């Protein structure tokens, strides 16, 4: 796992609450809306998102075992609020990519320094 779980907990409790206020409108950011696989509760997770042909890719900075990733994979779909609009995303798949080829160069460099190699690809529902 690239980043420590303690940081993940801090981000979930503190940083995410702040980030949710603007993440759905800012370029390169979005709010992933997904359902808890056990609770059925709706969650809103602010993330960095990158546009790719036919959908979006998200770098898994805490690894593929995080609750939100597992929720999206179990449900098979989610919604992304980005740049002021809501997009339904389907067919989630985790890809291990040492080069992080779908990520723009500046972010790719940072993610490489953090040892992040797993990406979540999501297709736009047509």
From TrEMBL:
GO terms for molecular function: oxidoreductase activity. It holds the Pfam family F420H2_quin_red. InterPro entries: F420H2_quin_Rdtase (IPR004378), Split_barrel_FMN-bd (IPR012349). This is Nitroreductase family deazaflavin-dependent oxidoreductase.
């Amino acid at each position: 796992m690239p980043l420590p779980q303690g940081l993940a907990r801090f981000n979930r409790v503190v940083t995410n609450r702040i980030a949710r206020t603007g993440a759905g409108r800012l370029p390169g950011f979005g709010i992933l809306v997904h359902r808890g696989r056990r609770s059925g509760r709706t969650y809103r997770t602010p993330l960095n998102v990158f546009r790719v042909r036919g959908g979006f890719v998200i770098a898994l900075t805490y690894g593929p075992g995080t609750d939100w990733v597992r929720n999206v994979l179990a449900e098979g779909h989610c919604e992304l609020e980005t740049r002021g609009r809501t997009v339904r995303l389907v067919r989630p798949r985790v890809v291990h990519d040492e080069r992080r080829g779908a990520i723009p160069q500046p972010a790719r460099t940072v993610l490489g320094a953090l040892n992040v190699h797993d990406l979540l690809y999501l297709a736009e529902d047509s």
